[in-house]
Amino acid sequence: MSLLNIAAILSTMTASSSSSIQQSQHLISNMNHHNHNDLVDDLIGLNFRPNFHHYSGFLSALNDVYLHYWFFESQQNPLNDPLVLWLNGGPGCSSLVGALAENGPFRINSNLTVDYNPHTWNTNVNMLYIETPAQVGFSYKLDQNYQTNDNETAHMNLAALKSFYRKFPNFIQNDFYITGESYAGIFIPMLATLILDDHYPPNLKGFALGNPLLDQNININSQYFYLYSHGIIDEKIWLKLLQFCRCDHHHRNKKQPPSSSSSSSSVRNCNFITNKSPLCQQAINLLDIYMNSFDLNLYNINSDCKQESIHDELLLKNWKESSEKLNKLMISLPCAMDEHALTHWLNKKSVKKSLHVPSKFHWSFCNKVDYDRNETKSVRTEIERLIDSGINGLLYAGDLDVVCNFLGIQWFVDDLLLKESIDDNNKLRPMINHTYWKYNGQIGGFYKHYTTDGGSNLTFATIRGAGHSTAVDKPAETKYLFYKFLNQKNSDKFF
Ligand SMILES: *[C@@H]1O[C@H](CO)[C@@H](O)[C@H](O)[C@H]1NC(C)=O
Ligand SMILES: *[C@@H]1O[C@H](CO)[C@@H](O)[C@H](O)[C@H]1NC(C)=O
Ligand SMILES: *[C@@H]1O[C@H](CO)[C@@H](O)[C@H](O)[C@H]1NC(C)=O
Ligand SMILES: *[C@@H]1O[C@H](CO)[C@@H](O)[C@H](O)[C@H]1NC(C)=O
Ligand SMILES: *[C@@H]1O[C@H](CO)[C@@H](O)[C@H](O)[C@H]1NC(C)=O
After folding, report:
1. Is 151's C-beta closer than 6 angstroms to any atom of ligand 2?
2. What is the pTM of this model?
3. Considering every ligand atom, which ligand is closest to the CA of 372?
4. Model confidence over 169-204: pLDDT tens digits?
5. Where in the sequence is the signal peptide annotated (predicted)?
6. Quick one: DSSP state of residue 417?
């Protein structure tokens, strides 16, 4: 229905073959890892000597699911520093992309040697990366029935987390944060509320989501505004959309009281998604055809389209299949990040051996997973509950990403302010209205900061000049922002 439903590949990368995943029976069925069994001590190609321990292995989760993890201890004080879980999105993209191309300590060079990432997050926190759900990266399920959804993925992640604490019981005392990007914006708040239900782990302190998908409708509606405001949609098409798609009514958010309507907020209420009006549909179709006529890198509109990655026939086939399955027009083939070095390195026999992964396993950036997406999902209730529970939140976004654009995330946050709370203590109050933040003497981006009397803080921040994966484009700024988020409880202001 809507071209911009590229949320299907919501992560930096492209879909790629899952046929090679025969990861099953012969393995680790009899897992009895102790910490030291998972210790990685002989990784090849390292250009430096790590001053931290790291561990790789499998976490047993629901129903014979085994999720692969890689855990990097803090370089400072592992026993006291927070534990931070990082999850990539997709659904279907591997969190090892986070570890090896975004915020982890290793960077894979094209000659397959490994450099230290000076912007790694594990300087003062312990970083845990889990490949999820089963069928992603090295993760697998014994019966190979991989069909799953948001709810099961959240439960699977909780079970894997519990398995992690069984392997590393010392870390249960540490402050715990959940972080991730893109489609993980859906399953992380769901995981966090399951943690609240279970009171385990006990020290959940916050969540930080980068270019997250939070609400399917808001996200798609905001994409049109983003494209128009960035010179991609012609004024004529735009005016048609505004005219025919009922932008003068409150459709985006039924809870919104009419009193808050102003010319700008009524424009936000355009409904490009479920609008059945033939004239609106016509305008959207026009736009679909137009958007499909070129390859723009929608993950970072200032970045070139990495065409080499779409010459892969198998990849092309999978891409088409998944767009047909969703019955949606796709904007264009994905212009992926260069994934060759990472894929070659992780598929080396010696690397798999060091990571305690059976040599038969095949790793790819993103797999086409058998995932029932909920096309109307919003995590608003989950995030409201987290705020009500004294948990801090950071929603940040590279401002060059169309796929999960900052505008939709800002709308989502603005809507949270309208929440009806029985307990007045939990109402979000603006502490800092929209303003800039600086890094290294320059504007790092813009932000707003909210607090509740109950003690939660919620921050919305953009990262100027970054695309969908902010740690790829603006690694220093992203780390700076993340550590400000972690340290806010010890300071009287966020920046
Ligand atoms: C591999 O590439 C890295 C980064 O470009 C470079 O620093 C290193 O010297 C190269 N190593 C070899 C053996 O060519
Ligand atoms: C969510 O998933 C869990 C684990 O698979 C299952 O037990 C539960 O019934 C599911 N809940 C819903 C509402 O589908
Ligand atoms: C889909 O998401 C909506 C909104 O979050 C929720 O109310 C509904 O229960 C979800 N449907 C399924 C099948 O999970
Ligand atoms: C933020 O803006 C609101 C509404 O414009 C205003 O009432 C409030 O005083 C401002 N807060 C701060 C901290 O500047
Ligand atoms: C929220 O931020 C304020 C400073 O802005 C800080 O004093 C407080 O401790 C923070 N709350 C939590 C739960 O971190």
Report:
1. yes
2. 0.89
3. 3
4. 999 999 999 999 999 999 999 999 999 999 999 999
5. 1-18
6. T
